[in-house]
Amino acid sequence: MPVYDAHLTRALYRAPMSSSTLPVLGMALPIELLPTYHTWLLEHGGRDLEIQDAARPEVLDGDWQPLVRRAREALDGFTGRIGIHGPYDGLWMASSDPFVRRMIAERYKRALEFSAELGATHMVIHSPFLFFGHPQMAHAPSNSLQRELDFVHDTLETVLPLARNLGLTLVIENIRDTNPNPLLALVRSFDSAHVRLSLDVGHAYLMHQIGGPSPDQWVQEAGNLLGHLHLQDNDGLLDRHWPPGEGRLHWRALFQALSMIESRPRLILEVRHERLSQAASWLVGQGLAV
Question: Going by C-beta distance under 8 Å and a sequence separation of 6 or more, which residues neighbour residue 73?
């Protein structure tokens, strides 16, 4: 077992006895690193796992069947929830161009094929809301919100039924969103248990610097529509994906807000792979998670 995996396991076993009441951390990993974290992923009845490979176009366009077989072999004995990060580069699902929307739908459906072979039950896709202006003006009803909602529904018209048939939830991640209301309006507009909000707390903190709400406020606004989080830290200047505790994000406020909602969102550490053990160890050491 690599040294940093051993450090991670020891840190988790140092958690206090009351840790059984704390939320359980998961990780975002490429398939090649699954053997490294196999023991850790089996803990607590199976941690949440997010596979990152399907976000890469060269994977989706290639022969990914051997890759998925390797993942299933590496996850022997794993009983936790599996998800994937779906493709996102250049995929603006509120595009006004019908051809572009069809292309995005096909890309998503290809990723869902990958998901089905893997046994995944969530796929992260990116928020369509890009806006130049004041946070309080973003995508107001008088500012094309309904038009953008309609475009997204058209993009996902053939995607969502496939996800539903696979028992998979689409979680829509905040990117440049300075106001949670448009994204929450989008999630609610589907009226489906298979569409939920994904909160990247690092993205939320960056947007907090220009007038958006703090990450813990996002949690309070989303409530039980929150199905998934990406946990990462930064200094408010760049999307650094630092381990928690290295930036300026208020982690205790975030986990306090999470304790007030009934849903059990997936808590996915999304930091540089070589620093995953540090990220998990810090949250455990703070008594915030196990």
Answer: none
Asked whether residue 18 is domain-assigned, the answer is no
Give the domain CATH number at 232: 3.20.20.150
In a domain, 290, yes or no: no
Domain-embedded: residue 17:
no
Min mean pLDDT across 45-54, 118-127, 139-148, 231-240 is at: 139-148
Q: Is residue 171 part of a domain?
A: yes
* 3-class SS of residue 29: strand
Tell me the residue range of the domain where 88 lies. Answer: 3-12+23-285
CA-wise closest residue to 289 among 231, 242, 226, 233: 231
Dist CA 53 CA 70 (whole Å): 12
Counted domains in the chain = 1
- Give the C-alpha separation, 169 to 156, whole Å: 12
Give the tens place of pLDDT for each residue, 157-199: 999 999 999 999 999 999 999 999 999 999 999 999 999 999 9
Question: What is the distance of C-alpha 201 from the center of its chain?
Answer: 10
* Cβ 247 vs Cβ 215: under 8 Å: no
pTM score over 0.85: yes
Tokens (6 digits) for 263: 């849903």
DSSP per residue over 132-149, as a string? -S-GGGTT-GGGTHHHHH
| Per-residue confidence band for 4, with pLDDT thresholds at 50, 70 and 90 | very low
Question: What is the C-alpha separation between 52 and 30, in angstroms, rounded?
Answer: 5
Task: Give the residues across from 171 on adjacent strands.
Answer: 124, 196
CB atoms within 10 A of CB 13: 11
Spatial distance between the Cα atoms of 250 and 63, rounded to a whole number of angstroms? 42
SS3 state of residue 169? strand
Pairing assessment for the beta strands 226-231 and 195-200 based on DSSP bridges = parallel
